[in-house]
Design a protein that fits this description.
Largest sheet: 2 strands, antiparallel
Helix content: 25-40%
Strand content: 5-15%
Radius of gyration: 22 Å
Strand order of the largest sheet: 1-2
Shape: globular
Length: 477
């Protein structure tokens, strides 16, 4: 019995997708027929099962045995979609020194070129099944199962510092480490810009937060950090028989995903949607720059970081199901102090330095290259980026619906129903080179992929040189 398959009527869709997923059509997607309208609208119970009838040993044995096939299915999909080679950009690094990856990694259907594709209307792309595989929603490594999943380098560091094991016996993280943010990431504070990176090159945990921040933060903020690095029970990491760890787990901390107040690309499924196949993969966003943001959550549009902090503990940690949260040990934070203390520290997290930008967020023309200057002109002009991403922080603090579903017919991909994404928050682009992969579900591996995606979706008809210039500008933000 799968713990997280609420939708009995939708199991045929999920199981079917797992059987046929693999090399398929020219676009790299599955070859199954688009689902009927009544299948897309199918629904069952909104709740996860609480009183399980299969014991833990049997569940673990079954899932361990299935793990190799599950991992292979996801990696086959990634290789169909992308060029996963490690090709770092020359002389371009993240703010802590890790090289960023360069080049278009999304693969095209046979016989298709980017120029041909951008000349086609959305209707033509849809009818000819020409939408690139890497532009479709990215499934969770095991979408029917879901749950929090951490990169191996984070698992190893937490085990080393705390003796806490974030390994799942049923799954492995899927994206190669060269496509994810540097680890541990630098920490910049709005209140102490004179100090630069205050992390001292360490991953902040319950073991070292006090020595790192005592004397730098006020008592409320220091308590906020403590809570952010304290593990609390979560859907897959807890003490119950439906956990996904070999031993009972103390849980996860906020900074297990938002490592050092940034991100380590840990993934999860959004708890807001039912049935399971419509839930979106989450690419953990950075917490840098929360002080200028007015919406929180890629699709939830929560109005304050306090709302978001409380929501995460009460609901997101348990796939949006407060019933099962009661079973597993939900941590109810006190709004007037604990939630406030956590939010106060999060709002100190600053963007990384951008030495080529002026106080208006635009290029200092004396420091910029010609390519970067052309890229800035495109950003605020032909490329239409500034319609949503406005200087100085490159966000409009709003939600926008790209309606990417114009370009393809709904289909199941490894248990994920690719249909409409709906409105998505405009994330700030300051420091964007530190935050790969891109888009709310991490489907775009590089900035070049991201420029190609928006060129098609917005119909901006950029030339090859213009795309390069736009990437050059994005790298300095």
């Amino acid at each position: 019995m799968k713990t997280y398959n609420w939708v009995i009527s939708g199991l045929v869709l999920v199981v079917g997708s797992l059987l046929v997923a693999g090399p398929g059509s020219a676009s790299g997607q599955t070859t199954e027929k688009p689902p009927k309208a009544q299948e897309i609208q199918s629904k069952g119970t909104s709740y996860a099962p609480v009183d399980l009838k299969e014991d833990f040993a049997a569940v673990m044995a079954r899932m361990k045995a299935a793990k190799p096939a599950v991992v292979k299915r996801q990696m086959d999909l990634l290789h169909q979609r992308y060029d996963l080679a490690n090709r770092p950009a020359k002389d371009v690094t993240m703010s802590g020194g890790k090289p960023i990856q360069e080049g278009i990694r999304v693969t095209l259907p046979q016989g298709m070129t980017w120029n041909k594709l951008q000349a086609m209307s959305p209707e033509e792309v849809r009818e000819k099944n020409a939408f690139p595989a890497g532009f479709f929603p990215l499934p969770h490594p095991n979408h029917p199962e879901g749950g929090m999943l951490f990169p191996q380098f984070h698992i190893e560091e937490i085990q080393k510092q705390e003796g806490r094991d974030l390994t799942r016996f049923d799954l492995e993280f899927d994206l190669p480490s060269h496509f994810v943010p540097e680890f541990p990431a630098p920490i910049y504070l709005t209140t102490r810009t004179d100090l630069g990176d205050v992390s001292q090159g360490k991953l902040v945990t319950i073991d070292n937060y006090y020595e790192l921040f005592n004397g730098m933060l006020n008592p409320k903020q220091l308590e906020g950090v403590r809570l952010l690095v304290t593990p609390f029970p979560q859907q897959q990491f807890n003490q119950t028989e439906d956990r996904r760890t070999v031993r009972p787990s103390r849980g996860v901390a906020c900074f297990d995903c938002h490592a050092n107040g940034h991100t380590n690309a840990s993934t999860h499924l959004a708890g807001d949607v039912r049935p399971q196949e419509f839930r979106h993969r989450i690419d953990t966003p950075t917490l840098r720059g929360l002080h200028i943001q007015r919406l929180f959550g890629s699709q939830r549009a929560l109005k304050t970081v306090e709302d978001f902090t409380e929501f995460e503990q009460r609901a997101a940690y348990f796939d949006g199901d407060p019933v099962i949260a009661t079973k597993k040990g939900v941590n109810i934070l006190e709004r007037g102090s604990q939630v406030h203390f956590m939010a106060e520290f999060q709002e100190l997290l600053d963007f990384p330095p951008a030495p080529k930008l002026g106080i208006d967020g635009k290029l200092n023309l004396q420091k910029a290259t010609e390519s970067e200057k052309r890229g800035q002109s495109l950003f605020f002009g032909k490329a239409l980026c500034a319609g949503c991403h406005q200087a100085p922080y490159y966000t409009d603090n709003s939600m926008h619906n790209l309606k990417v579903e114009r370009f393809y017919k709904p289909r199941m991909i490894n248990g994920r129903m690719a249909s409409a994404d709906g409105p998505i928050k405009t994330f700030p682009l300051r420091g964007i080179k530190d935050s790969a992969p891109y888009l709310h579900d991490g489907r775009l591996l590089t900035l070049e992929d991201t420029v190609e995606f928006f060129n098609i979706v917005l119909g901006t008809l950029l030339t090859a040189e213009e795309k390069q210039d736009l990437v050059a500008f994005l790298r300095v933000l």
